[in-house]
Prior knowledge:
This protein is 64% helix and 0% strand. The chain is mainly alpha-helical. Among the domains are: 1-54, Arc Repressor Mutant, subunit A (Orthogonal Bundle), CATH 1.10.10; 117-158. The longest helix is centred in the C-terminal third of the chain and has 22 residues, at 137-158. It is elongated.
Amino acid sequence: MTKLSRQDKIDIYNSWKHYGKSSKQLAKEYGVCSGNLRYMLSLIERHRLKILDKGHITYSVEFKEAAIKRVLFDHETSYRVSLELGLPNQGTISNWIRNYIKDGYNVINHKKGRPTHERQRQANPGASKANQRPRTRELEAYCSDRIRKKIRRLGLSKN
């Protein structure tokens, strides 16, 4: 799926609203999923074009918890709740619910992206054992000889 620009979204909405093009036809024309396109059209229809000006939003734990409770306990559909809250994707609440159940029915804001470099080192115990192996005198002598040889070569190239 291609990422649509703001202008593309406005053009799609205008084609759908004013020229009567179907969402399937527009999805094929712009190379996007028709279900996601229908959600976007419903979102713009409900919140107008100002919804397109929203950037990346980090939602609070309380906001997520309220949305999850509306779906799980008040038996509202996740699609409807997503539209009312103006979430950028209809699958966002489903992801929140999955993480809510996985985390023992607690809402936790998970950090995005890859773990930091230190965490990667701690997660790989095999690499730390390789660095902590005992060094023998023979190995140290061999390494010292290699270092001296490199220094001599570097010294010769400068002259």
